[in-house]
Design a protein that fits this description.
By secondary structure, this protein is α+β, with helices and mostly antiparallel strands. Helix content is 42%, strand content 18%. It folds into two domains: 95 residues, Beta Barrel (OB fold (Dihydrolipoamide Acetyltransferase, E2P)), CATH 2.40.50; 188 residues, no CATH class. A hairpin with a 5-residue loop joins strand 1 and strand 2. The protein is elongated, with a radius of gyration of 22 Å.
Length: 320
């Protein structure tokens, strides 16, 4: 069955095709009626869908992460395209083409891995270069990093997104660091490599993007520190040499402080120049990526401005 990709949908278009069900909620409106709030996905992206006058059975018969056949129509609401459904039913996995829904770009991931290997392999600091080797020599780690997502929503929320985000940050650190003589550029670059590695364990990238039990209970910052400790143990076993305590503390601080503020989940505020710079570079990459997505998804008739987004408290200028 032919289908239209989410990114190709237009306002007022009739739909009668399968999607992957990325998320589902059942809610109650002001009048006491129930409705479904869904997130539909395919390989091109996601779209919000609603079905009014829903019953509990409508919610229970569809499985989060599974495939659903949807009948309905698209409409623009506050500048964003959404789907209003009239019917939804679960579809057996054997009845869909998996390539329509796989968001992972294997070729792009392999290219980005090559960039990462080059960045880590060219480090002049012997301890950091060998520690990078300890990570990359673990085939299981590399396989998980290759497909990991950087988030469930917002920025880089797709399989392979964590790898792209990590390499982009390392390259920005490599460019910015030399402008500030007191910053250890290679230390900051390695902090960029480490800062979100815990998301490999925090977020499940197979099927529906969702938080794992370990992610919910521990979180990627603590997991990242644990992963660093495991890699240092491998380093010391492979090279029969102690890893410097001071360097380990610096790396741990880069991980635990990269959110920048206690209320945003960092156990410590950035206290080194490398940590301060890494926090702002990380925030910049996340903001530019998420704001770009808002611009690209905007469907208002205004050529210059997006619709107002309450989550960021502004409209965005979108003219090239």
């Amino acid at each position: 069955m032919s289908r239209t990709l989410i990114t190709e949908l237009t306002d007022g278009q009739s739909l009668d095709q399968p999607f992957r069900l990325a998320d589902k909620q059942i809610r109650v409106n002001r009048q006491g009626g129930k409705y479904l709030l869904l997130k539909l996905a395919d390989r091109s992206g996601t779209i919000v869908a609603m079905m009014w006058n829903a019953e509990d059975t409508d919610f229970e018969k569809i499985r989060r992460g599974g495939y659903v056949h949807c009948v309905g129509r698209t409409q623009v609401h506050q500048g964003v395209l959404q789907v209003i459904l009239t019917a939804i039913d679960e579809v057996d996995e054997s009845d869909v083409d998996p390539s329509d829904f796989d968001q992972f770009d294997a070729h792009a991931a392999d290219q980005t891995l090559d960039e990462l290997r080059e960045l880590l392999g060219n480090l002049l600091n012997t301890y950091l270069r060998r520690l990078g080797q300890a990570f990359l020599s673990d085939d299981s780690f590399v396989a998980r990093l290759r497909v990991a997502t950087a988030a469930v929503s917002n920025h880089h929320a797709y399989p392979g997104g964590l790898l792209r985000h990590t390499v982009d940050l390392m390259q920005v650190c490599q460019f910015i660091g030399p402008r500030y003589p007191r910053i250890d550029t290679e230390l900051m670059m390695f902090g960029a490599f480490l800062h979100d590695l815990g998301k490999i364990e925090e977020i499940s990238s197979s099927g529906e993007l969702s938080y794992t039990d370990r992610g919910q209970l521990v979180g990627h910052i603590v997991i990242g520190v644990q992963m660093l400790g495991e890699a240092i143990a491998t380093f010391e076993a492979d090279f029969d040499e102690d890893f410097p305590d001071d360097l380990r503390l610096q790396l741990e601080h880069l991980i635990v402080s990269h959110h920048g503020q206690l209320e945003f989940g960092s156990p410590r505020l950035p206290a080194t120049l490398e940590a301060i710079a890494l926090h702002h570079i990380d925030n910049l990459d996340a903001k530019i990526t998420s704001f770009t997505s808002l611009i690209e998804a905007d469907l208002t008739n205004n050529e210059n401005w997006t619709n107002y987004h309450p989550s960021i408290g502004r409209k965005l200028w979108k003219k090239p």
